[in-house]
Amino acid sequence: MHATGAVLELRSGPAWQAHVIDAPRMHIGLGQAKQADTIRVIWTDGIPQNVTDMRLLKSRIGVLHPQILIGSCPYIYTWNGERFEFFSDCLWAAPLGLIQASGDMAPTREWEYLLIPGRQLQPRGDRYVLQLTEELWEAAYFDEVRLLAVDHPADVSIFTNEKVGSPEMAAHRIHTVRNPRLPASVVDSRGRDLLPGLRAQDQDYVQPFTQRKVQGLTDEWTMEFDVGSLTPEETSSPMNARLVLIGWVFPTDTSINEGLLQNPLLPAPQPPCLEVPAADGSWTTVRPFIGFPSGKTKAMVIDLSDVISSEQTKFRIRSSMELYWDAAFFVLNETDQPTKSQVCDLLTADLHYRGFSQRVYQDQSLFRNGHAPEGYDYSKVVTEPRWSEMLGRFTRYGETSELLLQQDDRMVVMGPGDELTVEFAVPAEKVPDGWVRDFVLYNVGWDKDANLSTVYGQSSEPYPSRSMGQYPGDVQQLTPMTEDYVDWLKQYQTREYPRFRFRDAVRRGR
């Protein structure tokens, strides 16, 4: 807790020194210098933190570990008609080498279907343009990227199931909603009314827990729903009832999970489960795991057809994960509305170095309460290295579209600071009158954070494979060394990050 084992680096004029932290207070001599020019702490989980404020560097200074993500997922920026804006993150269901607080390796599901509202992705000329960036201390692997334009009636909303869970639990489907219904009540375990914050998707997030114990772990919390009175006709068999929850997750990481595994006083985060009331007033678990949102502000759909009835209108969700919720509603006995999907052909995919966008918070008051996820300002970028270099080979810069056309283990491998600009053709068929257009982004890939406790976290290799089972498994043996795969290794996997680039930037005070 006092950063024992972390590294403290200090620059003063031409002099540079480094110390391993072995006490809560460190005394660093400056010689004839009046003050330090730059201080950097590299914490035990690998997070670097710079102190450059001249007002703070004259004498004593306190340094606190920043509560930021060092690894999570690649980011998506969309062209909104005027500029690129941060949309969300991706590849959340496919972490490589992540050890859970139970001691088990986290499972991976390499595909996802992410909904992009039409207002957030507008044509730029004759094409749709997205930026896929890697801005954290991790490697990203994109094996296939597709964009689907989904047209539907203007009075109908569509959702995909953007949850972390098994392939069966997260099976792709376009969920259409014409008449969303609010629950009669939603309360937490302390009786607090959560419904006002769940009425609309407006970034007014609710926090069902009271205390965060560590990043990603909270006290056990519940959200109890009452859908209100239902008529026998509404609940007659077969019934089709679905709950849509929109929220985001602040996750643990491998180092935190290792710490939880070694601490008998703290339990592992409990994923969300679904419970119904029993006759004796207790609660019975009917679904031990219902999934959770795959990163920043995603929608998850939960089938309630066998949970509620005209006699039983209550259920609750229980968990101790750090989850925040923006909206909740349910739909009852709605038939699927017509939609029309068109493939937007991939035109180009250019991989290059960009850097790191400035973190922003869309609502400072909400963030101070710990509710809102951070965003990023694409117009403000820092090109200097932010993280220590990762080892291994990455995809060379330039045109890479042939690697994204199908899942074949010939993937685009990105490292910190990389950006992949993907451009898709606008479909020839126009949006029908009275309809609107949204999009579904289909990704196949993985990500691996460089946390010091992650399995093979310090290198881009070994590369994942669709046939590998559990990473790293027998990746090298299971990956077919076909002529195309060998050609991919020779022609594309030729880039390495310069050694000591991060250290040299520290010495220059950047």
Please provide a brief summary of the model.
The protein is mainly beta. The chain has helices spanning 195-198, 254-262, 364-368, 475-478, 483-491, 501-507, and strands at 7-12, 15-20, 38-42, 48-51, 75-79, 84-89, 111-116, 127-133, 138-153, 157-159, 163-164, 175-177, 185-188, 212-214, 217-226, 241-249, 273-277, 283-287, 292-293, 298-303, 314-321, 323-332, 340-344, 346-353, 356-360, 375-382, 398-399, 412-414, 418-425, 435-449.
State the helix count.
6
- Major β-sheet, in short? 6 strands, antiparallel
Structural class by sheet pairing and helices: mainly beta
Low-confidence stretches: 364-369
Molecular shape: globular
Major β-sheet strand ordering: 6-5-8-29-24-27
Number of domains: 3
Task: Give the terminus-to-terminus CA distance.
Answer: 27 Å
Mean pLDDT: 91
Count the strands? 30
What do you see in this structure?
The chain contains 6 helices and 30 strands. By secondary structure, it is mostly beta strands. A hairpin with a 4-residue loop joins strand 5 (75-79) and strand 6. It starts with 6 loop residues before the first strand and ends with a helix. Residues 364-369 have low confidence and may be disordered.
Annotate the secondary structure layout.
Blueprint: E1 7-12, E2 15-20, E3 38-42, E4 48-51, E5 75-79, E6 84-89, E7 111-116, E8 127-133, E9 138-153, E10 157-159, E11 163-164, E12 175-177, E13 185-188, H1 195-198, E14 212-214, E15 217-226, E16 241-249, H2 254-262, E17 273-277, E18 283-287, E19 292-293, E20 298-303, E21 314-321, E22 323-332, E23 340-344, E24 346-353, E25 356-360, H3 364-368, E26 375-382, E27 398-399, E28 412-414, E29 418-425, E30 435-449, H4 475-478, H5 483-491, H6 501-507
Antiparallel strand pairs: 1-2, 1-3, 3-4, 5-6, 5-8, 7-30, 8-29, 9-23, 9-28, 9-30, 10-12, 11-19, 13-15, 14-15, 15-21, 16-20, 16-22, 17-18, 17-21, 24-27, 24-29, 25-26
